[in-house]
Amino acid sequence: MLAMVGTLPFEEMELKAGETTFEGGNLKMGDFEVMPGLGTSAMVASACITCKALNLESPYFVTSGDIGDGKRSKELYQYVAAKLATLNPTVLTMHYIMPDIAGMTDILNSVRERRKEMTMIADAGAMYAAKATGLAQKIDIFTPDAGEMAYLADPKATHPAYVEHLLFELDPSEVITLIQKAYETGNAPKILLVKGAIDYIVEDGQVVDTIDEPSISAMEAIGGTGDSLTGILSALIYGGYEMVDACIKAARINRIAGKLAQPDPATSIVGIINKIPDALKEVKLCV
Q1: pLDDT of 63 higher than 70
Q2: DSSP per residue over the chain, as a string?
Q3: What is the average pLDDT score of the chain?
Q4: Which domain covers residue 15, as residue numbers?
Q5: Residue 192: inside a domain, yes or no?
Q6: Would you say residue 173 lies in a domain?
Q7: What is the pLDDT of residue 169?
Q8: CA 272 to each of CA 119, 226, 259, 268: distance values in angstroms, whole numbers, following the listed order
Q9: What distance in Å separates the CA atoms of residue 219 and residue 196, rounded to the nearest whole number?
Q10: Residue 260 Cα to chain centre, angstroms
Q11: How many angstroms separate the CA atoms of 84 and 136, rounded?
């Protein structure tokens, strides 16, 4: 099972969990339906369409509404910690969720016996929570953007808003330096997929590959393209690809999907997600 966890920006939406599909431009779980936008929904939609193209089971999605007070996020942490043994996922991906040290610790404790059999991926709030707990090395993959690397590299920061040096424009040499600092301080997992104009695939502190083609400048203005990359990556690992190989392939597929969508700044992330099956064909992962 590919299990995906993250909040949606709907006030007081109660916790929902179940197999989820992406059909007709919308995510569907039972009678719940939503059009993907930024964040968790874009990630899950991308995983759904990738799984379908690869003939894999649809993701199991656990979500709730949280607009910043953290109440529903706490419920997600509790649900996942309690249900992981029953769900028994081979891949667990956590995304937008309010950082909660106790909640993240509970989840990591609940999977302690199964860590060799399960890949854990953290993006956005889940990544912040793992770093804030000092347990980043217990996760397998982080998928930060270049700016979030400043947070991972700052040993004192408990949230990206509080980094010592907030860098809005990072050249490649600065990204490499931040990657090195994150590993030196123990605030990075075994593998990083750093998303940006150049995607960096990092294993144990060493950059093993970079992906910068195709380069579609309009994608920088489209919200959700980093989230779609995390969704593709999750599905590929669920499909049996080794972690570093999956990172490289996911970065290429996401960029090719963007190219095929022929985007402009007004293009929605759904337009790019819909091109993922064609991108998979272009890299010969499906027919």
Answers
A1: yes
A2: -EEEE--BS-TTPPPEEEE-EEETTEEEETTEEE---STHHHHHHHHHHHHHHTT-PPPEEEE-B-SSS-HHHHHHHHHHHHHHHHH--SEEEE-S----HHHHHHHHHHTGGGGGG-EEEE-HHHHHHHHHTT-GGGSSEE--BHHHHHHHH-TT-SSGGG-SS--SS--HHHHHHHHHHHHHTT-S-SEEEEBSSSEEEEETTEEEEEE--S--GGGGGSTTHHHHHHHHHHHHHHTT--HHHHHHHHHHHHHHHHHHT---TT--HHHHHTTHHHHHHHTTS--
A3: 89
A4: 2-143+216-282
A5: no
A6: no
A7: 54
A8: 26, 12, 8, 7
A9: 10
A10: 22
A11: 19
Q: Which residues of 137-168 are buried (b: 16+ CB within 10 A; e: fewer)?
A: ebbbbbbbbbbbbbbbbbeebbebeebeeeee
Average pLDDT (123-140) is: 91
279: which 2 tokens?
Answer: 């991108």
Q: Are 247 and 193 in contact (CB under 8 A)?
A: yes
Spatial separation of the C-alpha atoms in residues 80 and 187, rounded to whole Å: 23
The domain tally of the chain equals 1
In this predicted structure, the answer to whether residue 164 has a pLDDT above a threshold of 60 is no
Would residue 128 count as lying in a domain?
yes
**Do the beta carbons of residue 241 and residue 220 sit within 8 Å?**
no
55: pLDDT confidence band, cut at 50, 70 and 90?
very high
Question: Which tokens belong to 285?
Answer: 């992962």
pLDDT tens per residue across span 12-45: 799 999 999 999 999 999 999 999 988 999 999 9
What residue type is 274 in one-letter code?
Answer: N
Q: Looking at the domain assignment, is residue 241 inside a domain?
A: yes
DSSP assignment of 29-62 = ETTEEE---STHHHHHHHHHHHHHHTT-PPPEEE
For residues 40 and 130, is the Cβ–Cβ distance under 8 A?
A: no
* Model pTM above 0.90: yes
Compute the residue count for the chain: 287
CATH number of the domain residue 221 falls in: 3.40.1190.20
